[in-house]
Amino acid sequence: MRIAIDARLVSYAQGGISQYTVRLVNALATLGIRDEMLLLESRRASDDGKWPPSFRRARLATPPHHPLEQLALPLELLRFRVDLLHSPDFIPPFHRRCRSVVTIHDLAFLRFPHLLTPQSARYYGQVAKAVESADQVIAVSHATRNDLLELLSADPKKVAVVHSGVSPECRPLDPAEVELRRREIGLPERFILFVGTLEPRKNIPGLLRAFAPVWKEHRIPLVLAGQKGWLYEEIFKVLSELDLGGRVIFAGHIPPAQLVYYYNCADLLVLPSLYEGFGLPVLEAMACGTPVIVSNSSSLPEIAGEAALAVSPEDVDGLAAAMDRLLTDEALRQHLIHLGLQRAALFSWERTARETLEIYRRAAQGGR
């Protein structure tokens, strides 16, 4: 087969979907696939060595999420004579001459439609048609699969769960190296870490409200590692209301190779999201030996298992208490670190790639 993977979004956004695409492609390249693998990039893509040399690469003029994407993209695809197209960013071209696999990362936009911009609502509003149109659908968690069946009445026979993996680079580092990297990056000696795009469903205003009393008690800052997404203005409003200026560090987007040092340096990771389709930072932190607090919603209990403290995302006092416990109870910290390392070891990108390849085969055979 000639299998194409739509990687155009990678040149536009550095969030979870882009990271999923990059890691999946590199893991697929290690499997010795005999099919021809074609990587579809944006024309603004850079040659920065992130892609495996075994993949043929082609640049497309159609930008991701463009209002005319459904007209322009099918025309561009014609010249490649693709047998199967994998769309990791939810929406495939609806008019096409090939089999289709889509990855659905979450349905937060259906659970919380008020958290979308009009532009995002227009794009993700096509998801029902995308799921119906695709030959096979990859859900990154059982929670996402359940949402697909409940909210979109998806055909259960063509929706498969394929968990994402943890990169081998995510591991506990030597303390001397951690200290060296901390000083090079300019990180505080101790800090609480959040990793994710700054957008409403991440519940950062709730995190700030929970962090305020923790700061007063422990004087340990909060580092927010992630780029601005959409509707993030409330974050800065709450920051001002709580007078937390200087106590919260906005690190921006951190490349994966450097993010490992953030995990290793942090006292703990907090991911208090209202909704997550998977929650990769949870496993990455665990793999680095960092204790984790998550919200008890959507996929996070499924991914974290018993290896994290879980709190309702609406429970500000409970979240503050959980952070206080992990900053003061060394026995609990060590217990969660031990469980977290075991939990993270269950997830690998090689397994993700092998299971994804099985989905490609199934789609090529018409879903059989």
What distinguishing features does this structure have?
alpha/beta, Rossmann fold, 7-stranded parallel β-sheet, 6-stranded parallel β-sheet, 42% helix, 16% strand, globular
Task: Tell me what you see in this structure.
The protein is built from 15 helices and 13 strands. The model has no long low-confidence stretch (mean pLDDT 93). Helix 11 (280-287) links the parallel strand 11 (268-271) and strand 12. It folds into two domains: 2-165 and 349-364, Rossmann fold (3-Layer(aba) Sandwich); 175-344, Glycogen Phosphorylase B (Rossmann fold, 3-Layer(aba) Sandwich). The protein is of the alpha/beta class and 368 residues long.
Q: What is the name of the CATH class of the largest domain?
A: Alpha Beta
Arithmetic mean pLDDT: 93
Determine the fraction of residues in helical runs and give it as a percent range.
40-55%
| Low-pLDDT ranges | none
According to CATH, the fold-level topology of the largest domain is Rossmann fold
- The domain count comes to 2
**Number of alpha- plus pi-helical segments:** 15
Oligomer: single chain
CATH homologous superfamily caption of the largest domain: Glycogen Phosphorylase B
Please outline the major beta sheet: 7 strands, parallel
Physical arrangement of strands within the biggest beta sheet:
3-2-1-4-5-6-7
| SS-derived structural category | alpha/beta
Return the string of H and E elements.
Answer: EHEEHEEHHHEHEHEHEHEHEHEHEHHH
Number of strands: 13
Provide the gyration radius in Å.
Answer: 21 Å
CATH architecture of the largest domain: 3-Layer(aba) Sandwich
Distance N to C terminus? 17 Å
